[in-house]
Design a protein that fits this description.
By secondary structure, this protein is of the alpha+beta class. The protein has one domain: q2cbj1_9rhob like domain (Jelly Rolls). About 25% of the residues lie in helices and about 35% in strands. A hairpin with a 6-residue loop joins β9 (about 160-165) and β10 (about 175). α1 (about 5-15) crosses α3.
Length: about 230
């Protein structure tokens, strides 16, 4: 984590609303998390996307205690992303965020949000995820991460990560991102500041996954705010 080029990541987040990283998890880490998917004791809930018109596929929210690799990623990413989160908050004139994850989760708990939100997502041929935002209550951290656990071209085809930015008084801007196993995309949860002629304004961002053409695709979602 310390070896990542954080100035470049922060610059990309400011300019595009997302940034990608080299592998944060080893292939063995990825395989271990995928193996956990069938162990129901590790999860607090399962969501069938089709049932709720979220798309096609399914995902499961981890129960506490989180797997060690997930806990470590969440705890180590948060303070580095809080730098950008607080810069964005200042630009938008809103309240900032604590510098450490533990303090931020206390804020979530004070608002009735105490259920963990890191999750594993599974897509099979034909599955996809509609554009959405991961908001679970009044408190929401403005950045989150997705880590690719499968191998593009070997385990699956298609299934690109999608971002859609809804710019005011302009057409929406889309972006498709392909990750390799272990790599992560850090991206806007709900909105980000963009500089215009009258200063900074909010731009809403949604994310999703394009249709899987073949195989099976697993990803880890690292969301920093807890849920009600």
């Amino acid at each position: 984590m310390a070896e990542l080029d954080w100035p470049a990541i922060e610059s990309s987040l400011d300019e595009f609303g997302y940034a990608t990283t080299p592998p944060l998890l080893t292939a063995a880490d990825c395989r271990e998390l995928v193996r956990l998917y069938d162990d129901e004791s590790r999860f607090r809930s399962r969501i069938d996307m089709a049932r709720y018109n979220f798309g096609s596929g399914e995902y499961k929210y981890f129960a506490r205690p989180l797997p060690a690799s997930v806990e470590e990623l969440r705890s180590e990413l948060y303070p580095r992303l809080a730098v950008t989160a607080n810069r964005w908050a200042e630009r938008l004139g809103i309240s900032g965020y604590p510098g450490e994850l533990e303090a931020f989760l206390e804020v979530c708990a004070q608002h009735g949000q105490n259920r963990p939100t890191p999750l594993l997502l599974r897509y099979r041929e034909g599955d996809y995820n509609c554009l959405h935002q991961d908001i679970y209550g009044e408190v929401a951290f403005p950045l989150q991460a997705t880590v690719m656990l499968s191998r593009p071209g070997a385990d699956f085809e298609g299934g690109e990560f999608l971002l859609m930015e809804q710019r005011p008084r302009a057409q929406s801007r889309g972006q498709a991102v392909t990750l390799q196993q272990g790599e992560a995309i850090l991206f806007t949860t709900r909105y980000r500041p963009v500089h215009g002629s009258r200063g900074f304004h909010r731009v809403n961002v949604r994310h999703g996954v394009s249709r899987l053409l073949a195989g099976q695709r697993f990803t880890l979602g690292v969301i920093f705010h807890d849920a009600r």
